Amino acid sequence: MFIDSHCHLDFPDLAKDLDGLLHNMQENQVTHALCVSVNLPDFPRVRALAEAHENLFASVGVHPDYEDQIEPHADQLAELAKHPKVIAIGETGLDYFRLQGDLEWQRERFRQHIRAARKVNKPLIIHTRSAAADTLRIMQEEGADDVGGVMHCFTESWEVAQQAIAMNFYISFSGIVTFKNAVTLKEVAKNIRLDRMLIETDSPYLAPVPFRGKLNQPAFVCHVAEEIARLRGAELEEIAIATTDNFFNCFRVSKNGLYAS
């Protein structure tokens, strides 16, 4: 079985066919999915998905790309994260690729998320793009290792992966690992410890080969696992079992769907 550790089922392109997506998950042995929040106004619909479906979970957070937002405070995030189906804080982090100028607001937002995670003892979902050094620095300064979490949709170097793992974080691979030109990322997937690996779709984005360029969905996460198995010379079942166990360990969820605080 497989678990999609990061998707956005509340986004309009996916939400309009939720029943079909859930059916496709079942057909492809994808047993669970984590629906990730990107802003607070839309958080209620993310939470509602998790409430309505036993095999869906939710997170709460504000994506670093969302510039025009009321800045979340750690206490506010922590309060929203007390819901039993909200199993993580994020997605949060830094993105210097899409935005330029004075991004101190982005770094302060990231700090608030880490503080919230420590308040409720729930893991972080971290997004980093063109900002690895500052991301790791703030994680260290704010004690992110106390709660751990996942470096989502990882595209960084082996050195960054090792530093994140040393801070109690998992490394999550998306459909990017199936792309021919993702040479550096393939090396990370080939060499990383199996007990620190997660898989995801980040759907509706980044559909893996052979669906590249099409609308992504959680059912496609099996293709991410297949590529990782190929790179490592491993059996697909080994990757499936490890990444499933890692999901429950990372997010401290029991296999009956209950949060294990």
Explain the layout of strands and helices.
Blueprint: E1 2-7, H1 12-15, H2 18-27, E2 30-35, H3 43-52, E3 56-60, H4 74-80, E4 86-95, H5 104-120, E5 124-129, H6 132-141, E6 149-151, H7 158-166, E7 169-173, H8 183-191, E8 197-199, H9 221-232, H10 236-250
Parallel strand pairs: 1-2, 2-3, 3-4, 4-5, 5-6, 6-7, 7-8
Helix pairs in contact: 4-5, 5-6, 9-10
Structure description:
It is a single chain. The protein has a single domain (2-250), classed as Alpha-Beta Barrel (TIM Barrel), CATH 3.20.20.140. 39% of the residues lie in helices and 17% in strands. It is built from ten helices and eight strands. The protein has an eight-stranded parallel sheet with strand order 1-2-3-4-5-6-7-8. Helix 4 (74-80) crosses helix 5 (104-120) and helix 5 crosses helix 6. The radius of gyration is 17 Å and the shape is globular. The chain starts with a strand and ends in an 11-residue tail after the last helix.
CATH class: Alpha Beta
As a whole number of angstroms, the C-alpha radius of gyration is 17 Å
Question: What's the overall average pLDDT, rounded?
Answer: 96
Please give the domain count. Answer: 1
Identify the CATH homologous superfamily: Metal-dependent hydrolases
Give the neighbour order of strands across the main sheet: 1-2-3-4-5-6-7-8
Which percent range describes the beta-strand content?
Answer: 15-25%
Helix share bin: 25-40%
Broad structural category: alpha/beta
CATH architecture: Alpha-Beta Barrel
Largest sheet, in brief, is: 8 strands, parallel
CATH topology: TIM Barrel
Shape: globular
Query: How many beta-strand segments?
Result: 8
* Distance linking N and C termini: 24 Å
H/E order of the elements? EHHEHEHEHEHEHEHEHH
Q: Return residue spans where pLDDT drops below 50 for at least 5 consecutive residues.
A: none
Helix count from the secondary structure assignment: 10
